[in-house]
Amino acid sequence: AEKIFKPVIQAFDENISENKANDSTYDIDKTIRVIHEIDQAIINNDNLEDYLLKISKQDYRNVAPEVLEARKKLLQTTMEIYARQTKLKDQPDYWDLIREYTLAAGSGINPAGLASPIPTDAIQFDPNLSKKTYENYLESKKVSEEVKGEIRELKTKLLKQLYEYSTVYYKYYDEWDRVC
Q1: Cα(146)–Cα(87) distance, rounded to whole angstroms?
Q2: What are phi and psi of 24, to 5 degrees?
Q3: Is residue 136 pLDDT above 90, yes or no?
Q4: CA distance 82 to 88
């Protein structure tokens, strides 16, 4: 997750620092344009990677640092959610359990036993291996539930940050309306 988010977070960091260090007054028109461009990038890009690439290449000079800081917070929380979702996708599902059981049972096949008319000696079932496979599955499900809980908490955090961002957003829109 960090790999795909790093360029845009780095761009935000550099511009936040530069815009604060130069003690430059922000350009309200450019600030509003950037807000629109970031919002349009969400609408116009079909996936997260394209969106992040698009906004990482924006020119954020003379944009109000407060806007960039608020957007950065949103991106960082989105990155955390994305990382958890990726971790969740890596967890085995029920089919994986069935496959593991089958492979565990198949690992004890005795080829010599297959030649007999009643192949009772053909499969040597190892209950310890099956138990270990099942315990691994349960552990992965426990991790999945923990990750789902983390995602729920992060989504709540993201909603709070969206509210905070909307305060910043409307502050600059109100200013822009007064100027225009």
Answers
A1: 11
A2: -80, 145
A3: no
A4: 10
Q: How confident is the model at residue 123 (pLDDT cuts 50, 70, 90)?
A: low
For the chain, helix (H) and strand (E) counts, in that order, are 7, 0
How far apart CA 71 and CA 107 sit, in angstroms, is: 53
The reported pTM is 0.74
Distances (CA, A) of 133 to 48, 58, 99: 35, 49, 10
First CA to last CA distance, the chain: 40
pLDDT of amino acid 93: 60
28-44 and 48-56 helices, crossing angle to 10°: 160
Residue 70 pLDDT > 70? yes
